[in-house]
Amino acid sequence: MEQPVTYHIEYELDEFQPWPGMAIYAYGVATISYKWEGRDRDTGDDAGPYDIELEHLTISADKAKEPDRCIEQTHPLFLAVEAAIQSDDHVIQACIDDYEQN
């Protein structure tokens, strides 16, 4: 059986809300990996990305005061962004667009 291919994208975070319902926004760049599943002819399930994971997170800071900052994978912000990207329609669409361009 073939192993699924892992794809990577750079996703720009612009007013990304990692905690729904809270007025906290993340700005920066997320490196995201995903796998692609083809259409299942037996069940009729559509093709699409799955196993969407956050690999790396860089938060933009105020350039006049401090540089951009890489967020550790154990940091609560990283964990919140990671959880949010898995069901975010814009991230899913970015994965679809990336796959279609390859």
Structure notes:
The protein is an alpha+beta fold. 23% of the residues lie in helices and 36% in strands. It has 2 helices and 4 strands; from the N terminus they run ββββαα. It has a 4-stranded antiparallel β-sheet with strand order 1-2-3-4. It starts with 5 loop residues before the first strand and ends with a helix.
Q: Termini distance?
A: 22 Å
Low-confidence stretches: none
Strand content bin: 35-45%
Secondary-structure element order, as H and E? EEEEHH
Q: Numbering strands along the chain, what is their spatial order in the largest sheet?
A: 1-2-3-4
Number of separate strands: 4
What's the helical proportion of residues?
A: 10-25%
Specify Rg, calculated over alpha carbons: 15 Å
Shape: elongated
What about the largest sheet?
A: 4 strands, antiparallel
Mean residue pLDDT: 86
- Please count the helical segments: 2
Content-based structural category = alpha+beta
Architecture blueprint of SSEs:
Layout: E1 6-16, E2 26-37, E3 48-59, E4 69-70, H1 76-85, H2 89-101
Antiparallel strand pairs: 1-2, 2-3, 3-4
Brief synopsis:
It is built from two helices and four strands.
Fill in the keyword field for this structure.
102 residues; alpha+beta; four-stranded antiparallel β-sheet; 4 strands
